[in-house]
Amino acid sequence: MRLIHPLSGLAALLACGLALAHGVAEGDARFMEQSAGAQLMPFLYLGAKHMATGYDHLLFLFGVIFFLYRMKDVGLYVTLFAVGHSTTLLYGVLSGTHVDPYLVDAIIGLSVVYKALDNLGAFKVWLGVQPDTRAAVLVFGFFHGFGLATKLQDFTLPEEGLVANILAFNVGVEIGQILALGAILIAMDAWRRSHAFARQAFAANVALMAAGFVLVGYQLTGFFTQT
After folding, report:
1. Euclidean distance between CA atoms 47 and 29, whole angstroms
2. Is residue 7 part of a domain?
């Protein structure tokens, strides 16, 4: 496996469309606004679809599991992220708490930068201590959940069945996360078995950090130019 493979994978995630971060397709949004009553299976599907195509989530999770080799550790960190993501997604939508989506998505971009720097050992060198990665994953999970909540708040969702539908959507998000993570783990396992992994790991995390900065710049540009 040559260096181009992991780096081109990161580029492909960005190339799929920056505007789609936490986005909901027009047809899906129209369905959600017109759905009266509990529509559990459709909302579950939409939640899974969001996570499977949410490249900002995937970039962060890619960084989180990059150096995790035991399924016990993978399960712990993914659970922490899921708890954080689910909490603020449900709270944001059901309570109506609103924050600027550009700023939230900029922080999500920073979460990608943070995890890349963490993987590179930068904090140990700069600060002399290693920050608690578990706490960081949980905290950034809160922001990732709020990122999606801000998008759902843009829609006029029917009150009838709202709680059930949002719960189903959240379950779908977690199912999508498991499916996407499974694919990432398969690819990572094959990559780790190659002799080139140790040599390519540094460059891959630099590319991951660069991708995070691109996300931050894109969102801050939107924030300062919004009308």
Report:
1. 12
2. no
114 vs 98, residue with greater confidence: 114
pLDDT more than 90, % of the chain:
46
In the chain, how many domains are there? 1
Predicted TM-score of the model (pTM): 0.86
Report CA-CA distances (Å) from 183 to 65, 95, 107, 177, 204.
12, 34, 26, 10, 18
Q: Which of 184, 92, 79 is nearest to 138 (CA)?
A: 79
Whether 13 is in a domain gets the answer: no
> Which whole-number Å values give the CA distances from 201 to 58, 112, 172, 223, in the listed order?
17, 15, 32, 33
Q: What mean pLDDT value characterizes the chain?
A: 85
Let me know the angle formed at the C-alpha of 64 by 113 and 141, rounded to the nearest 5 degrees.
80
Three-state SS at 100: coil
pLDDT digits 0-9 by tens, 37-51:
888 898 999 888 888
Structure tokens given for 4: 């181009």
Residue range(s) defining the domain that contains residue 202 = 25-32+39-225
Task: With respect to residue 15, please indicate whether it lies within any of the assigned structural domains.
Answer: no
